[in-house]
Specification:
Blueprint: E1 4-7, E2 10-13, E3 16-20, H1 25-28, E4 44-47, H2 54-61, H3 66-70, E5 77-80, H4 83-88, H5 96-106, E6 110-112, H6 125-144, E7 151-153, E8 155-156, H7 161-177, E9 185-188, H8 192-196, H9 200-213, E10 218-221, H10 229-236, E11 240-243, H11 245-251, E12 254-255, E13 263-264, H12 273-294, H13 312-322, H14 331-354, H15 358-366
Parallel strand pairs: 3-4, 3-11, 4-5, 5-6, 6-7, 8-9, 9-10, 10-11
Antiparallel strand pairs: 1-2, 12-13
Helix pairs in contact: 6-7, 7-9, 9-10, 11-14, 12-13, 14-15
């Protein structure tokens, strides 16, 4: 079902994807400009961890502005707590109140609670869930004393229905004590590793459980943002997802097309020049087929001009612009291409829902992938 979810004064149609961005990736990571407008990006996720780095901590103290530093005005922005990065760097100590202070200074529309994610085989899941609940309580209490339009997004974790339901009940109880009537937004953490490790079915079941418990809430899945896993999340009940893989995969010379796994467009993968040419030709043919059947188009990512997909020479030049031989000279083009593809898939999902073709669309995209066992038969 398509929803109109509000973020302050802005509205986002769902299903939708938040482009996850680490501060400084433009220009230090190879981006030549911010890709938001040329890729028709609808929402942005930034990270509180970045503001603990000296350079950006200084900016924040001097009045940091989303519009000024990210060139992203008039659209929803969410700020993650940075839990994943803080847990990887235990020497950096951080308290829930510190994260809330950063989130308020950034003036994002949604701030995420400082949660404690875990891998499927983690021995301390119960402790991490308890810490997340404790942080949720502290941050909600602190926010209630502030006059700020920012909303906090609690995060649930668990790999069983019982863990998920218990986590939700705990959040509901503490919100009730604060006279907050219901959970209107909820994030789901610790499920991306499930999907990446081949347990997409369990990831799907976790999302469905949260949706069953909170049928009217805005449901966001963290890091479920590849062109395939995002569709699995939407299919299972998520409204929004986020992705940093648009630039991370580009750094590994990977390019994404709708309904396909990533392709590595690098000369080192192939023993001969002819082998590399074969891969690029196949990629170009896929673009042409997607253009003819679904209206998929691409651009010259540094000018924003459309590529004439029907011109073989221009299409081949485009694929060359995504390819690298030795360096990462074309990272910017691949990153924009990947983000454009993810945004395209979100729009196609909405289009399919509007036309009553959601079940057919999902089966077409996922039945030949690792997620095929997650796709039910029959029309949705």
């Amino acid at each position: 079902m398509i929803k109109n979810i509000t973020f302050g004064q802005y509205t986002l149609k769902t299903p939708a994807i938040f482009a996850s961005y680490r501060l400084g990736d433009f220009p230090s990571a190879g981006l030549k400009s911010y890709p938001w407008r040329v890729t028709e990006t609808e929402a942005l996720l930034i990270n509180a961890f970045d503001f603990k780095r000296p350079k950006f901590q200084k900016h924040l103290e001097n009045g940091w502005s989303i519009e000024k530093y990210l060139d992203f005005p008039d659209k929803p922005v969410m700020i993650d707590s940075g839990a994943y990065y803080f847990l990887k760097r235990p020497h950096i100590k951080v308290a829930p109140e510190e994260i809330l202070e950063i989130e308020l200074k950034v003036k994002a529309h949604i701030g995420v609670v400082l949660d404690h994610p875990f891998l499927p085989n983690a021995p301390d899941k119960k402790q991490r869930i308890s810490t997340t609940i404790r942080n949720t309580k502290q941050m909600l209490l602190s926010l209630s004393k502030r006059q700020s339009p920012m909303e906090l997004m609690p995060v649930v974790h668990g790999h069983t229905k019982r863990e998920i339901r218990d986590c939700i009940r705990q959040i509901q109880r503490l919100m009730s004590k604060m006279q907050i009537q219901e959970i209107t937004r909820i994030g789901i953490g610790s499920i991306a590793p499930l999907a990446k490790q081949g347990n997409g079915k369990l990831a799907s079941e976790v999302i469905k459980t949260v949706r069953e418990e909170l049928p009217n809430a805005h449901l966001h899945c963290f890091s479920m943002g590849s062109a395939l896993s995002m569709l699995l999340a939407f299919y299972s009940g998520a409204d929004t997802v986020d992705s940093q893989s648009w630039i991370l995969s580009a750094a590994f010379k990977l390019a994404q097309l709708p309904g396909h796994y990533v392709v590595r467009l690098a000369n080192r993968e192939h023993k001969t020049e002819s082998g590399f040419k074969t891969v690029k030709n196949a990629f170009a043919l896929r673009i042409k087929a997607l253009h003819d059947t679904e209206g998929y188009c691409v651009k010259h990512w540094q000018t924003g001009e459309w590529v004439n997909v029907n011109c073989n020479g221009e299409l081949n030049d485009y694929v060359d612009s995504l390819s690298d031989r030795q360096s990462n000279e074309n990272l910017h083009n691949r990153a924009c291409h990947n983000l454009w593809t993810y945004n395209f898939e979100a729009r196609k999902a909405r289009e399919a829902i509007n036309k009553g073709e959601w079940g057919d669309f999902i089966r077409k995209r996922l039945l030949n992938t690792r997620y095929k066992t997650c796709v039910m038969q029959g029309n949705e």
